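User: Quick sanity check before I run a bigger batch. Here is a single chain. Can you write out its predicted 3D structure?
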Amino acid sequence: MLSSRRTYTFALLAWLALAAGAGALGVRAGLDAARARFEQDSRIAHRLLTQRAEQHEAVLAGLAALREAAPELPEAPLARFTAQLRAHYPQLAAVELYRRQAGGWTRAFTTRPEAPALPSLPAGMSMPGGDARLGVLAASAPGEFALVRPLDGAALVLHIAAERLLPPDEPPPALGALRL
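Assistant: Done. Predicted structure follows.
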């Protein structure tokens, strides 16, 4: 009787050990699958954000080319052009043009006149004929940032609304709570 009790105890312990091992393997497999999904979704979100950044650079390059082709372009055609851009790129909150004056930078054009002008532009932009590198600033409105492209004696500023960078249906569902 004692030997059969030991056999049952041993069998029970062996079964518990196997069940615990199988459970640990199941948990590990679930964690690995969740990590793989997260990494894939993160790569997708990164690719989408990279595409948006490239779009912003293209928009700034187009605006810069327009300004260089017609430096004294009246505000009405520029406003219509930027309105068309904003229809295709809802994350564009505003477009501004600043001119370099003796006392600093003054805003020459804006698609959002109610917003205050930026308090300052990057120091490197005060150099005549600044380079074509983009600067990034905190914008005057909450939830926005500004991309600044220096031009010869001027600067283009593109205000981007972070919450509209990715429409709700674009990020993978697992990253649906992604907040920029």
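DSSP finds two helices and five strands in the chain.

User: Great, the batch can go ahead then.
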